[in-house]
Amino acid sequence: MKSRKTILDVGAMKEQGEKITVLTAYDYPFAQLMDAAGIDIILVGDSVGSVFSGYDNTLPVTLEEMIYHTRAVVRGSQLALIVTDMPFMSYQVDARDARLNAGRLVKEGGAHAVKLEGGEHVAETIRTIVDIDIPVVGHIGLTPQSIHRMGGFRVQGRQEEQARKILADAKAVEEAGAFAMVLEGIPRDLARQVTESVSIPTIGIGAGAECDGQVLVIHDILGLCDKYSPKFVKCYADISGTISEGISNYIKEVKAGEFPTLDHSFK
Ligand code: KIV
User: Fold this and answer.
1) Could you tell me where the beta strands, DSSP code E, fall in the chain?
2) pLDDT tens-place values along the chain, 267 residues long
3) Cα distance between residue 177 and residue 197, in whole Å
4) Domains of the chain, CATH where assigned
5) Distance between CA 26 and CA 65 in Å, rounded?
6) Pocket of ligand 1, candidates 184, 218, 220, 225: which has the most ligand atoms within 8 Å of its Cβ, to mutate?
């Protein structure tokens, strides 16, 4: 019988040159489907704020919401490693807060690891969480929780000084004890350099093909988003069309008295 992926399996995949697949999920049915399809890691991303709750960005998402969504995803999966995002202001204030909140995601949500954004300036926070035996994924480059500092969702690391900073961030995240890191919205050459310079796996999103793995938001790859789709997204299906058609047909049939038929009724 197959067992759930662990952080050790993920590390071994980098060593063996096997690409790591990651998708976001926020609920039971999507977790079931991607787990059965063989996804390596499910990320309960704070992108839930945008694609599920309809906010403009991830900043309003709360710890309670992340716990709620994590529980559903854990119940829906058997084989994937479950990583949950620490939402904005759940780790920025102090180490005690960071440990308590990471602990709640594991204890109450059932997450196997947590992810938090930032490089050198959050290295101590990563270390303090790793020290209580909660595995951490770093996230550098375009960090959506820093949207106001970045002045929007912009590719990071195009200028030499910024690129040097991202390389330093990667080193700091690795040295702090993270077992993997997300590289978001950086030029592909820089992502390759980061990937070659660290021993832990890099998971790219808008960071080119030379990362150790890739992550995308499930709503984006299924064409379930009504908003702008970034250049790095590939649509593998268009389920919005299928859903709209199903809903329209239901409305039409109820209005016309065609549903329910005797087949859908009790004697
Ligand atoms: O919140 C999220 O979904 C993420 C990924 C896009 C990396 O952080």
Assistant:
1) 20-24, 41-44, 81-85, 113-115, 136-141, 180-184, 202-205, 213-216
2) 889 999 999 999 999 999 999 999 999 999 999 999 999 999 999 999 999 999 999 999 999 999 999 999 999 999 999 999 999 999 999 999 999 999 999 999 999 999 999 999 999 999 999 999 999 999 999 999 999 999 999 999 999 999 999 999 999 999 999 999 999 999 999 999 999 999 999 999 999 999 999 999 999 999 987 667 889 999 999 899 999 999 999 999 999 999 999 999 999
3) 15
4) 7-236 (3.20.20.60), 240-267 (no CATH)
5) 10
6) 184
* Amino acid of residue 220: D
Write out the DSSP string of 67-80: HHHHHHHHHH-SSS
Claim: this prediction has a pTM higher than 0.70: yes
What residue ranges line ligand 1, CB within 6 angstroms?
24, 43, 45-47, 85, 182, 184, 205, 215, 217
